[in-house]
Amino acid sequence: MTARVRRRTILAFLGPAVTALAAVGILPLGYAVWKSLHDFNLTRIARQKFVGLDNYVAVLGDPVFWAAVGRTAMLFVIAVPIQIALGLMIALVLHRPGLGFWKTLTRLSLVLPMATTYAVVGLLAQVMLNQKYGVVNQMLGWIGIDPINFIGDPTNAFIAVVLWDIWQWTPFVALVLLAGLSTVPPEIEEAARLETKSGWTILRHVQLPFLVPSLVAVLILRTADTLKLFDMPFTMTRGGPGSATEFIAVLIERVGNRQFDIGMAAAQSIIMLAITIVLARLYIRLFYREVR
């Protein structure tokens, strides 16, 4: 095969993938960057003008934006460590020999929350947490607890979003960590179990080094998911009551789709993309130093 034929073959295989990537990723990103540099409001579309970095300066100086970032960060700080802790416990249980049919059934059941879309999860939560007719308040009534206003109270609404996020994504974390545990050489693990009965010692010195790539992947993916979390809190609370569950993606939707300020919403989106990239790089540098 000549060099020219080889190049053509490579282009023939890579061409469709590169074209699709450009169509669904690079071009929309470029368009968003371009619009973020304009005063572009749909209520006065004929008057859009180039303003440079003015939108970015306005976003960085906007207390509403930083309040939404703070709520998003709080959701991440509370939910993700709990997801990792619960997911690790589930993964360790499923990794041990035995259980047979129950292990297979548990693995299959873990897929169900992930297969449920964010919007459906939000609607399910809205129905289950209804103060008058929700099944959660009915169950609380059985043990003598008065109905709780989960959706209408700011603190309760935020807690409900956190709990629902934990329910939906703990199985994902468990499956990723279970895959990481499967990379531990069986002979090393068996030798460690002969040396000590301490599960913590085995986890710390034998299993954890093999789990580092999985933990980095979980942190990166859950960070990106949290920063773009929109469907579930929007369908559940519409970002309320007040702004209690107006996370950054919900704020961007409000600015872009309800205030029609596309330039400002684009600038907010680009800033959050930059934050995601910086955090992903930070995770890799801190937890997975072999990656360069």
UniProtKB/TrEMBL annotation:
Where it sits in the cell: the answer is: Cell membrane
Q: Write the record's keywords in alphabetical order, separated by commas.
A: Cell membrane, Membrane, Transmembrane, Transmembrane helix, Transport
The record ties this protein, via SUPFAM superfamilies, to:
MetI-like
Q: Which CDD domains match?
A: TM_PBP2 (cd06261)
Q: Give the record's GO CC terms.
A: plasma membrane
Q: How does it sit in the membrane?
A: Multi-pass membrane protein
Predominant localisation class: membrane
Cite a single Pfam family from the UniProt record.
Answer: BPD_transp_1
Asked whether the UniProt record includes Transmembrane among its keywords, one would answer: yes
Q: Where is the ABC transmembrane type-1 domain?
A: 69-283
Residues passing through the membrane, by range: 12-34, 73-94, 106-129, 166-185, 206-224, 262-284
Q: Name one GO biological process term.
A: transmembrane transport
By sequence similarity, the record places it as follows: Belongs to the binding-protein-dependent transport system permease family.
* Entries under PANTHER family matching the protein: BLR7065 PROTEIN, SPERMIDINE_PUTRESCINE TRANSPORT SYSTEM PERMEASE PROTEIN
- Tell me what this protein is called: Carbohydrate ABC transporter membrane protein 1, CUT1 family
